[in-house]
Structures are given as C-alpha cells and as structure tokens.
Design goal:
Length: 673
Amino acid sequence: MQPTHHQPASRHVAVIGAGAGGLVAARELRREGHKVVVFERGDQVGGTWVYTPNVESDPIGLDPNRTRVHSSMYQSLRTNLPREAMGFRDYPFVAIEEDEERDPRRYPGHREVLMYLKDFAIEFGVSEIVRFETEVVFVDLVGGGKWKVKSKSKRGEVVEDEIFDAVVVCNGHHTEPCVAQIPGINTWKGKQIHSHNYRTPEPFRDQVVVLIGSATSAIDISRDIAGVAKEVHIASRSVADETIEKQPVYNNVWLHSMIKSVQEDGSVVFRNGSVVLADVILHCTGYKFHFPFLETNGIVTVDDNRVGPLYKHVFPPDLAPSLSFVGLPWKGALFPMFEFQSKWIAGILSNRIALPSQEEMMEDVKAFYSSLEASGTPKRYTHNIADYQPGYEDWLAAECGCPAFEEWRKQIIYRNPEPFRDQVCCNFNGGAASSADISRELAGVAKEVHIASRSVADEAIGKQPDYDNMWLPSMIKSAHDDGSVAFQDGSVVVADIILHCTGYKYHFPFLETNGIVTVDDNRVGPLYKHVFPPAVAPSLSFVGLPWKVVVPFPQFELQSKWIAGLLSNRIALPSKEEIMEDIRAFYSLLEASGIPKRYTHNLGDCQVEYNDWLAALCGCPVSEEWRKKMHLEVSKNKHARPETYWDEWEDDHLVLQAHEDFKKYTLNGVSKK
C-alpha cells in the first residue's frame, strides 16, 4: 500500500452498470466518501445475472443494428463455483434455508445469484443511487480532467450532459459475441447461433448440432441439449487434431478436434478427418470487450480483445485515476476480485492511496505485455488471470491495506477450478492418476474393466471412449458373497477381482511425540504450512506431505530451504501462539467450506502460490514463469489426451525457456549442461 499525504478528497463519480461490479464499486466509493451515480439501462440490478427468455434478432450477434439483449443467462445455468467462494468479503453468499423462494444448493442457479445481488444492493443502500432504465450513450473527456456523461432514458429522452470527476466502467463483457472464424462459415446454409442467445434446449430437438468451444458454458450447454438433440458434436481447440471420442454417459455426444471447414451442403469437416452433416452450429466462443459509449481519443483501445494500455487491468496510465475499469479479468472467483478493484479505485480517488507515476505505470504495462509475448500468450488472453489470480488479488488487498484472500477461499477455488457440480465431466475416465493409468493398462488383457468413482453422479454408467471393455459407473454400493458388485447407479457386475486404487495413509511408525503430532483421518497435525508442528518447531519438520502436486521436487527443495534457514537462524518463525492461531484458522475454514480432514494436505491448484510463498520466505526467486505455464499445460494435456500426453505436447516454447534457464544455473561453480 502506498499512503498519500494529500488531503482526503470527495469526488463526483459516475459508475456505468449495476451488475456485480457496479454494485460493489458504488458501495466502496460511497464508503470512501464520494458522491456516486450509477447508470443502469435495465430495470433492475444484477447485470448479466438477470435472466430473460428474450433473445436478440440476430442469433449469432453480428448485425450491428440487431435488437440487443444484455443477459447471456440460459435457463439451466448454475454456478461453477460454490457459493461461499463467490460472495463478497463482508457480505457472505450464504444459503437461506427457511425461505422457500431461495435456492440453498452449494452451486445455486442464476436466480439465486441475482437475489443475492439484490439483497446486497438493499443492504448497503446502493439501489437508491441507481438510475434505472438509463443508458449511457457517450462519455468524453473535457477540460480539467473531468468527464462529460450523456445518457438517455428508456423513453428516448436525452438527459442533459453531466460532468463528473471520475468514471468507473462496469458494463460487463458478456454481451458482444465473439464468433469462430472458419473457412466457408459466411456462406454456410445451416443455422448459426451464439451461446449469448441460447436459453433452452427445446429448439434443438432432433437436430444435429455442432458446438464450438470447451469452456464452462460449452460443457453446460452440450449436456443440456444432448437430452433432445439427435447428435451433438463438440469442436475444441484444446484437443489433438486426430481426436474423435464418444463421450461417457451420453450416446449422442462426440468430442472432436477443431473444425477445418464448412461446406455449402451443410457438412462440417473436422481436423480429425470426420465429416458431419449438421443442422446448427452453436458458437460457445466467448465475448468481445465493448465500450461503444467511451471516447478517449485513442488513448484506450480494444485490440484483439486486449483493453489497453491498462495498469493492473484497471487504470489507463494517461487518464488515471479519473477513468478506471472494474471486472475485465476473467477465469476465477470474480465477485471478490471486483471488490478489491473497487476498494483500490475508491482509495486512490480519495487520495488515501497513491498510484505510481504515469511513466512507472506505463513501464509496468509494457513489461507485462512483453512477458505475455515472450511466453507465447495471445493478446486475446491478456485479461485471463487464471494462472495468477490469488497473487493479483493479494496484491490489490495489500495496496488497499486490507487482509489478503482467505486461505480457505483459495483452497476451494484453486483446488478445483471447474467443479463437476452434480454432473459427470465429459472425457473424465474416473479416479486419480494411478487409477486412470492402471485401468488403461488392464483393458488390453482383461475381459471387462469397471471403474467405480466417487467423482461422478450416482446414476452414471458410461462406456468409455476408445475401449470396448471399459465402463465408468458411480461408486460401489455393496459387494456380495456370490461375487457380485452393486453400484449406486443400479448396475450389477459379477467380478473376479476388486483392485483398490484408493490412495494411501500418512504413516510414521518410528515417530514418538507424546501426542503432539497425530494423524487423524489422514491429517498430519497440527502443522504450520504443512511443515512445522508448533510445539516442537523448528527441531521437528516434515518435507513432502502436500499432494496433488504436479511438480513435487521443486516444492521439496523450497520446503528444505525454509527448514535449513530456520535451523541456522537466518530465517525466523512466528511465535508458537501465532503459528497455532494460523493453523486453527486454516482448519476452521476447511471445515466451514465442507472440505474433509483427509484433504488437508491436498494443494491442488494452490501449489504455485504455496511455492511462491515459500520462496519469498527463503529470499529466493519465485517459481519460473515457464515452470508455472508448463504445469498448466501438463494438467490440460493429461485431461485432453490421457493416452498420449507423454509423447505429444504443444509447449516446446516452454521447454526452450527452461533450457535457457538451465544454462544459467550453477553447481559448485560449474555450469550445468
């Protein structure tokens, strides 16, 4: 945080949009003492979470003169994060069990999210400062660093120009469709629709549908329409070109590589060589950032979906702090991030927090863009913060002088970034790594292989792609004396062998600590950061307890550096009381979020942040960017190509970066070759 010594300022601020970002921005600005007006073209708060059955006049969303609908909600949509991780910091998204109108599920439907946002607006008095049915049509910089905002009511009445000290743009980015560019698509005679205009599956009954995309909405919609469509063919950029896989559970869903071309006769040609005669192409291909009302004389542009230049995705250096954006980053827990961004903006506008100079901000932006280019990240992924969201939010929190992202929230979000919610995930073969490997190996010789998994719905039973003798049922319900095994999906198999690929217990038969350290439901504890028991630290420590770690060796190294530095007094531990308090808080939050004790040491997608935290304590560099990106590539490839990921990869550029770093490393003064 950079405090300032200027007098506190109260500014007149326009907030554009009353979705989640606009609501929390308005609250934080008011808390900081600013006068706020929120412009909302709809008749209620909630933004994209306001479901409507209405769709646009152009279903693919290319006609600039089409009738526009703001929301992209489809009727069946449920959150892909648990509610406790979604909510704002000081207004938890808790289930209201006693109200029959509410949805108490942990992954609720879109209506429950809208009701939460309405409750938030009422609780903090934001509703009273929203001008509903008022669309901002023009925002322009005027003299003295102020902004002119022109708006019109739903009835078309033009409001007098108003002058504001600052404008915060919170208009969302799920309204302007991005459509796949495919040879022949402009003359294809079938129907095309963008997911922005998808509401229910019924229009696709008995149709052959090609769905482009493999992100959350694509997975949801493919499942939704599979129940009524004749065939569903999913085209994905994230799988190998030769991919064509029948999907488990569904008899009419296939996963293909990307489309190569479409033909005038309605046929769709995939890169894997297969051809489908389709009725509909459904583009689940994301959205463009769109600010038709904003005039900055070319200072802020949208280039290949990069809004820039922006300092930390929020401030354009040449116009800061009078112009800012909330909610541009994507992939992650967005509501808490909106809150941090809003606190930062509000504190800067009041002179409580200082920005770096324009030159320093611009230098930071250039360095960020250069790093993206060097790593091969396309411009359109500039605002995808999936790889570093916890670090970004913790940085914002530090700037604002408030606590960082809670550990429990990180654990929930980053252990399982795209939860299965009650569904079977397409292309999921059940079990952990050893289970998947062994099942494939056995399939070559066994008569039948049945994989029982807790990770799929109770009614699941699916023939596995590429194997005629492998099925994925739900978990085993019971086993009987006659050799039969009954599954929770109702199926029964007479088995010769049950092979338990069910993990391991922590086991220290040699260690006597008089009860100070115990193993309880596979939780080794109490341990500070999975390493030190407070009562006997630093004389007793553990290396290598965390699991679900893609790259364990570097983590062992960092844990070992920390231990060695502590034992030499080069690094200091907090007091025993502080350590114990940290552990209690961690355990309490795991319990509150429903995470069983046995998953205490499951780092999952938090491993990068954990390793960087260890590195900072040890005073050594954080994990190399190529290593972080390689970790993500490995995870993606294992999911997309479980059979071939060892021998096929697409991250040669990361391998080259790794070898460049290897040349720099030394051992006893001798370069490692």
